[in-house]
Write a structure and sequence with these properties.
Length: about 400
């Protein structure tokens, strides 16, 4: 079981790439390693690294390699997100995709060529580093494809499928046999008509990534200590398995955090513990990567209020109660064999979209079962009578949402 954190630099946030200070990065990594964590996920800013479609800055790539090496010296493996893309409400797109050069991120051939070259270059630069886990294509890049983004890049599911395969192939060309994957925010699972689909998330790439945020209506509906809130990450992990064709496909809880005021600051440690305890009861969980390492300096303007205090550590690198809770799990589970029992009861899912979202029949049925002490998973309706599929997953009972009483 892997425990890690999404690395947010304590000085300058992700703008640190503009004034890269290896000493400051090393001090941040020291504070992360002191928690006993084993990996970080890091975020190059795409327009800083590739300011022109045919210019990938060698110095920026060298700085990324230096960061990965510094992490390795502290016993930390590294996953690298490529196309940033979107971070904490801010978009970072290179000028060759915007305004006078406005081109679709997912369908324009030249943009795709530039993106593939960039991902291939980063992967190749890190290929010989033993602590390099692999690439994530970008951070929740699906938010560019559909509403509520103010200026979306429309694409069909088939076009997105082709784009994902091309980008994953580029990563594989640069660094063969690493853990390359893609990661979306929950619109892929919860939003009707979204062009990034659960089937893509659960079949393309080396693992399924889920990003669990309870400010999506879950905490508002169920409260900060409700079962649905404390097990929202579990729900997303188990929902992903409905679309997986490999019953043993690994699932990475790649982002999860305790956003205030939905989770009051004084409850953050308890929420962290409840979330991790619940997630550890999911078969085929690869690991938990908390969002995020360090708070955002309040001298930086215009962030949504909840973004400033999501760190496990302060901007002066002091651990907060949630950090100590996660550190306890990292110490207790290091090198421990862990094989949870199969989840034998599955809620039947008709398809992606609002029915799976908080307030929808699938979500609320699953939450009601979990609150009653059942360990539910999910299964697609078209597989609900596929005895071979059910047996492979250890499912012995299927339940339709309408059969589950809930508030």
């Amino acid at each position: 079981m892997r425990f890690g954190v999404n690395y947010t630099p304590s000085q300058g946030w992700f703008h640190h790439w503009l004034d890269f200070d290896l000493g400051a990065v090393e001090a941040d990594l020291d504070s992360i390693a002191a928690l006993g964590l084993d990996h970080v996920r890091v975020f190059p800013l795409w327009p800083v690294f590739q300011p022109n479609r045919t210019l990938i800055r060698e110095r920026a790539v060298e700085q990324l390699v230096a960061l990965v090496d510094a992490a390795g010296a502290r016993g930390l493996d590294v996953n690298v997100d490529g196309l940033q893309g979107h971070l904490s409400s801010f978009d970072f797109l290179p000028s060759w995709t915007t305004t006078w050069h406005r081109r679709n991120l997912f369908t324009d051939p030249e943009v795709g060529e530039g993106q593939a070259a960039y991902l291939r270059t980063l992967a190749a630069a890190l290929n010989d580093r033993p602590n390099f886990l692999g690439m994530t294509l970008g951070n929740e890049i699906n938010q560019f494809s559909y509403a509520p983004h103010p200026d979306p890049d429309p694409a069909t599911p088939d076009q997105v499928d082709s784009w994902l395969r091309r980008m994953l192939d580029a990563c594989e060309e640069g660094a063969p046999d690493r853990m390359h994957l893609h990661a979306e925010y929950d619109a892929a699972w919860y939003q009707d008509g979204h062009p990034f689909t659960p089937a893509q998330a659960a079949t393309l790439g080396a693992a399924t990534a889920v990003h669990s945020w309870v400010f999506n209506g879950t905490a508002q509906r169920h409260g900060p200590t409700g079962t649905a809130t404390e097990q929202h990450a579990v729900y997303m992990i188990e929902l992903s398995k409905a679309w997986a064709t490999d019953p043993a496909r690994p699932v990475w809880l790649q982002e999860v955090g305790a956003p205030a005021p939905h989770i009051p600051a004084e409850d953050a440690a308890a929420f962290t513990e409840a979330t991790v305890v619940a997630a550890l009861d999911c078969p085929d969980l690869w690991g938990v990567t908390w969002w995020c390492s360090h708070d955002v300096d309040r001298a930086l303007a215009d962030f949504p209020a909840l973004e400033y205090d999501l760190g496990l550590l302060t901007t002066t690198r002091e651990p907060k109660p949630a950090a100590k809770a996660l550190a306890r799990f990292a110490a207790a589970w290091r090198d421990r064999e862990h094989t949870p029992a199969p989840r034998t009861t599955a809620v039947v899912v008709d398809g992606p979209g609002a029915g799976c979202a908080p307030g929808g029949p699938v979500f609320e049925a699953w939450a009601a079962l979990a609150a009653d002490g059942v360990r539910p998973t999910t299964v697609l309706a078209e597989r609900a009578e596929d005895h071979e599929h059910l047996a492979a997953r250890g499912i012995t009972e299927t339940v339709h949402p309408s059969e589950v009483p809930h508030a």
